[in-house]
Design goal:
By secondary structure, this protein is of the alpha+beta class. It folds into two domains: about 5-170, Aspartate Aminotransferase, domain 1; about 175-285, ph1033 like domains (ph1033 like fold, Roll). It has seven helices and 13 strands. The strands form four sheets. Strands 9-11-12-13-10 form a five-stranded mixed β-sheet, with no helix packed on it. Strands 1-6-8-7 form a four-stranded antiparallel β-sheet, with helices on one face. The chain has a two-stranded antiparallel ribbon with strand order 2-3. Strand 7 and strand 8 (about 135-140) form a beta hairpin. The longest helix has 14 residues, at about 145-160. The protein is elongated and about 65 Å long.
Length: about 290
């Protein structure tokens, strides 16, 4: 970028909440010479991203920098950025080359989800942004467009006014732990396909919950859909405090030997389940 690594980069550190979408010039191994700033010989995710944002959120690109094709997408109500398109070298993501690559930075507020997805191929702690809250997603075909669009939705919700965050975000998948000392989770669906459970922070109607029963079972046993939240309920003792319940509908059962803690740790990089948490895309695929 003619502006990118200095003036635009300095600007980014002082901006508010936004999503960074990165598009880069074509690579020499795909074409012998490239004389234009942006050409898309690799998978054309630039067009797909622009089209998705337009159809989903009605936002058109804005080009605030002269002689720079970096494009900004803004919320229509609060005018905050939720997308920025620009060009960066591959070396910025740890590659041993300065070839340019398409990428997209997204705001991920959930620290557990942030940690999980940055261990996936093609997703990194963000370039030129707060690495605790943002990620960079390569747009060179490494990460599927379906995954990219899901993360755009997450970032759009994260930059929305707080009153809209839960309402607007797409359905999410969670692992929710159950301690057999306090819940008879193994038998909760013996005689019914619905059950009330302690309300998990951030969980909304339409979300999917995978119920993980702790030791001695130590495995995911049930897949459930959340049908109701914020059911009034008050309970408290020295070990447990409940302020509200959520209603779960049973969707699927799993054999106790299929998704054990050892499998979650060794195959999916999940090392602890102490509270409701998101799940990696690879585990989601296998669970479904």
């Amino acid at each position: 970028m003619t502006h990118g690594d200095v003036s635009l980069g300095d600007t980014l550190w002082h901006m508010g909440t936004y999503l960074l979408v990165t598009h880069f010039a074509c690579q020499s191994r795909y074409v012998p010479v490239c004389h234009v700033p942006l050409c898309y010989n690799i998978p054309m995710y630039k067009d797909s991203v622009f089209g998705y944002i337009k159809s989903q959120y009605g936002a058109d690109p804005d080009y605030p920098w002269a002689n720079d094709d970096s494009a900004v997408f803004r919320h229509q109500d609060n005018k905050k950025w939720f997308a920025l398109v620009m060009s960066v070298k591959r070396s910025r993501f740890g590659f041993d080359t300065d070839e340019p690559v398409h990428a997209m930075n997204l705001k991920i507020d959930d620290p557990i989800l942030h940690d999980m997805i940055t261990h996936e191929e093609g997703i990194f702690p963000s370039y030129h942004m707060n690495k605790k809250h943002w990620v960079s997603v390569l747009l060179d075909g490494t990460v599927p467009m379906e995954k990219i669009s899901d993360l755009i939705d997450v970032s759009f919700a994260a930059t929305s006014p707080r009153r809209r965050v839960v309402k607007d975000r797409p359905p999410k998948e969670w692992i929710v732990p159950a301690n057999p000392k306090f819940y008879d989770a193994e038998h909760i669906f013996d005689d019914t396909d619905e059950a009330d459970w302690k309300q998990g922070a951030g969980i909304k109607v339409g979300d999917t919950v995978y119920l993980y029963v702790a030791a001695p079972v130590s495995a995911i046993l049930f897949k459930c859909r959340i049908t109701k939240t914020d059911i009034p309920y008050e309970y408290e003792d020295s070990n447990l405090s409940i302020k509200a319940l959520m209603r779960m509908k049973l969707i699927k059962r799993y054999d106790p030997g299929d998704f054990t803690f050892e499998v979650l740790r060794d195959e999916y990089g999940i090392f602890a389940i102490r509270g409701p948490r998101g799940i990696p895309n690879s585990l989601s695929s296998d669970l479904n």
